[in-house]
Specification:
The structure is a homodimer of 307-residue chains. In chain A, strands 5-2-1-9-10-13-14 form a seven-stranded parallel beta sheet, with helices on both faces. A three-stranded antiparallel beta sheet of chain A has the order 7-6-8. In chain A, helix 1 packs parallel to helix 2 and helix 4 packs across helix 5. Chain A is α/β, with parallel strands linked by helices. The first copy, chain A, has a single domain, classed as Rossmann fold (3-Layer(aba) Sandwich), CATH 3.40.50.10680. The longest helix of chain A has 16 residues. At the A-B interface, helix 3, helix 4 and helix 5 of A face helix 3, helix 4 and helix 5 of B.
């Protein structure tokens, strides 16, 4: 079977790893978010793609939740001492990848080709595609002003309540080579337990991706990022409360209106399945705390195709 | 008094430190070689300027002879794993500086302004000027082909005998702001015990610098990089033998024909002072093995102004 996963950062990466414990690497295509990409120290950084890469390559720092295990911070110590741009925490091991990518991009390679090369060099067999090779950037509107995504998320610690989002470049962005073909040929389309607003919405904002999902032949199943109405990590719960009016499964499903057929919800949210409409709930434990839990979540989501 | 030092990498850096044990930081201006600058991993690297900076800031690795003490190599390990450009050894601490500089250059700052900013951030009070802000690159002609300097020096381990040198851009290059003024106002002009062909010649190849030296009012004193006819480090002796016909003081002086009034030579070369012409020999111990030796070499060279 062929499965396409729309994925953001940590939640997307961990769910991808869970799926790969059930399906083979050639059966899965991951479409990654690039709305939180940024230029820092003159280098193009793709935090969500990298989190997926590092996780699937077994290089990620599981405790910190981002970046590489065994990381050091010497380059940034120099940058800081020299009064340079040190707010975005690029470790030394991580920097090597950004340098190689930036050089390839500067030489004219599209992000998808560079990502494929990096994945291959790191031994990641699963296909990882950026949603688009074109420039797509998430902007966050708050009472304190409009911020580039990472400025809001990292520099301001995602404390400012979000009034709105804009995905610069999304309407005109073309899906990266292979994205539409993968979606059209999928037996199942999955949406990872990532933040619907800042991790998945930038992917769906690419018009051609959204349109192929609206006309999908295969079932589409999203995994809610909430457990007991709370995000495992990050501001998804606060954003749902503020922007969607609540944190129940119905509000998660509403983020994907017309785009999904089923929603995997945690047992702790199963008391409140009203308002899902035509979206079928799949209730299970969603916390990926160990291999067994990951596998059973993956199987529940993959069950969407068998139903 | 005001002294201008023309300096390459290690020899220049150590001699600059020696001078600063005798004169105050505001009395010295260092004009650094940029002929061995290169672009690596998309970053502009100025190895000679950086060696001077690190040495004067007390950050250099004295044993290795280049780069920073306590250096780590994690970024490059990633670059290597990803099949990127890993031949030029950029350590993590060092990379931070290159990132900050590359970003400033990309924003339009001239190399001299960036160098001043880096020096200031590292607490280096002495003025360090690149010979030019314009592009100037040393090319090395050998029987195996013509190579960019670092390709010959690092990648090929400076094993190919040198048939000739070319300083791309030198004739048209304008001296960096402050260079001509410093030379014109100097009480003494010094040439460091650097490689005459690849460290000092690129500076002298800048037409306006060469012209102001030819017309100098102040005495100019070079320090021979040879001890007993051998270079302390690097290929200077082999290059002198091949390109100047020998390794005696006269052949060193010939590299600076018309540009110096005295040559500091090591005691071990004092038996062979023939052919110096109007260049006055200053015989002393030139190996900078400790603070005492550094100081006495500096005093011998500075004595040029008092003679």
């Amino acid at each position: 079977m062929s499965v396409v996963l729309l994925a953001g950062g940590v939640g997307g990466a961990r769910f991808a790893r869970a799926l790969l414990e059930v399906v083979g690497p050639s059966e899965l295509t991951i479409v990654g978010n690039v709305g939180d990409d940024l230029e820092v120290l003159g280098l193009h950084v793709s935090p969500d793609l990298d989190t997926v890469l590092y996780t699937l390559a077994g290089l990620s720092d599981e405790e910190r939740g981002w970046g590489r295990e065994g990381e050091t911070w010497n380059a940034l110590a120099t940058v800081e001492r020299l009064g340079g741009e040190a707010w975005f925490r690029l470790g030394d091991l991580d920097l090597g990848l950004h340098l190689v990518r930036a050089q390839a991009l500067a030489a004219g390679a599209p992000l998808s080709a560079v990502t494929a090369r990096l994945a291959s060099a790191l031994g990641v067999e699963t296909r990882l595609l950026p949603a688009t090779d074109d420039r797509l950037r998430t902007w966050i509107a708050t009472a304190s002003g409009v911020f580039a995504f990472q400025e809001w998320f990292v520099l301001r610690g995602h404390r400012d309540p979000v009034d709105g989002l804009r995905f610069e470049g999304a309407e005109a962005a073309r899906p990266a080579p292979g994205v539409l073909e993968a979606l059209a040929g999928a037996r199942l389309i999955l949406v990872a337990p990532s933040n619907p607003f800042v991790s998945v919405a930038p992917i769906l904002a690419v018009r051609a991706i959204r349109e192929v999902l609206e006309r999908r032949a295969a079932p589409a199943v999203a995994v809610s990022p909430l457990i007991g109405g709370r995000a495992v990590k990050g501001p998804a719960d606060r954003m749902l409360a503020r922007l969607a009016g609540g944190t129940s499964p119905a509000q998660v499903a509403a983020c994907y209106a017309g785009l999904i057929d089923a929603l995997v919800v945690d047992e702790r949210d199963a008391h409140d399945l009203a308002g899902l409409g035509e979206v079928r709930p799949i209730v299970t434990r969603t916390l990926m705390r160990d291999a067994g839990a990951r596998r059973s979540l993956a199987e529940a989501a993959l069950g969407g195709v068998r139903a």
